[in-house]
Amino acid sequence: MYKSGFGNHISFHMPGHKGKKFFPDDLTKFDTTEIDGTDNLYAPRGIIQAAQEHAAEVYGAGHTIFLTNGATAGIVSAILALSDERGVIIVARNCHKSVFSGIILSGAYPFYVYPKMYGDFAGSVAPLDIEQAILKNKDKRISAVALTSPTYEGITSDIKKILEITNRYGIPLIVDEAHGAHFPFSPDFPQNSAAVGADIVINSMHKTLPVFGQSALLHINAPKLVPKIMACLELTQTSSPSYLLMCAMDKFFEDYKAYDFGEYSRNLQDTRAVLKECKNIRLLENDDLSRLVFLAKDMGNFGNTLRDKYNVEIEGSFDGHAIAISTISDSIEDLRTLQNAVLETDRLYAPKEQKTAEYARTDTVISPRKAFFGKRRVVPIEHAAGEICAENIMLCPPAIPIIAAGEIITESIIANIPPILREINVTEEKYVK
Ligand SMILES: Cc1ncc(COP(=O)(O)O)c(C=O)c1O
């Protein structure tokens, strides 16, 4: 692994540093532990506290906590802190698996809100749908509303409007803003959710900013939630948080003004304008300028073509779209290389019709925790319709469950499961119809 060195391709995938130098070479100097003067992440009173306060100021958040086990640890901890088996959590169905993991661990019962679909991927959730979900569950204890904004494809939901609704009903809003850690650094990016006032926001810094993998942030705008979330972070995170990761995050907040986000934004706009010359591949008009999403038919081999012919490695190729992650670490030359590779490859693809798809919906009939931890049985996929799923089944990326624990497996959901999966765990736990 070490010897492989991971090649020298032009990166349009995470982490956001793109393999370029952003940190001093003497890494080991920064890889320390809790000794005199280095503070403690779980009881910060010194340099970690000061660094977190600086980060909070940058994001316009009330309180910010460094995460060294990815956004995942922050999301799971937030759900654990807020919800339990006594209540319902309202969740956008296109959330990342970490939200579904948090639900299994907490024992909460999910009520799913379905997003708008863009053919083979999901987009925003409508504020009205969130309000209707709240009203449908008004006789129950609603612990939180959780959603993803922006999505992997750079589509945001109207967080301001959704927050007005959740505030009106006194329900905390958790925004998984994993893919939007860069939002505060240019007015050309969408407004970041912590600055709008969302109760809890999680940013995966390593996806779009020059820091090390697993570096992330948890912002809290409701001070009373801080102690419980901190306690849950101690349940889910390592007791040896990486000082190297924390120092690199702090370094970015020290340095960010020196990065030319204005020029970067202009470069992105120019690249987007040129990419519109493609005849077959269409660039998605999404909310995040930096997330380049290419739409065409049968794009499964798009990434391979860019790698083999142009030495460009993108984030992912799917059936009807492909994703390139651009960050402040990309030079104008990197963007041009990607742009020319896409222009030259365009003729290999056929345009994709503008299809709207329906989310393959089903019902949750038993709590995901009970389905996951209860008695299980393995059944062949072709005999699974009508059974209740005991696990979360997904492709990663995007790590959005095709079927989640507690949901009834239907024929249309089976049709979405990749053929490589031959068997599925179903629960034998009883449920009330
Ligand atoms: C929408 C979304 N949320 C959360 C995560 C988890 O982030 P991390 O890898 O930092 O744990 C991901 C990771 O891909 C993601 O795509």
Mean pLDDT: 96
Strand order of the largest sheet: 2-10-9-8-7-3-4
- Portion of residues within helices: 25-40%
Bound compounds? pyridoxal-5'-phosphate
Can you tell me the number of structural domains?
3
CATH architecture of the largest domain: 3-Layer(aba) Sandwich
Determine the N-to-C terminus distance.
Answer: 51 Å
The CATH topology of the largest domain is what? Answer: Aspartate Aminotransferase, domain 2
**Poorly predicted residue ranges:** none
The radius of gyration is 22 Å
Strand content: 15-25%
Annotation field: number of helices = 14
Q: What attributes does this structure have?
A:
single chain; 433 residues; alpha/beta; Molybdopterin biosynthesis moea protein, domain 2; seven-stranded mixed β-sheet; four-stranded antiparallel β-sheet; 14 helices; 32% helix; 16% strand; globular; binds pyridoxal-5'-phosphate
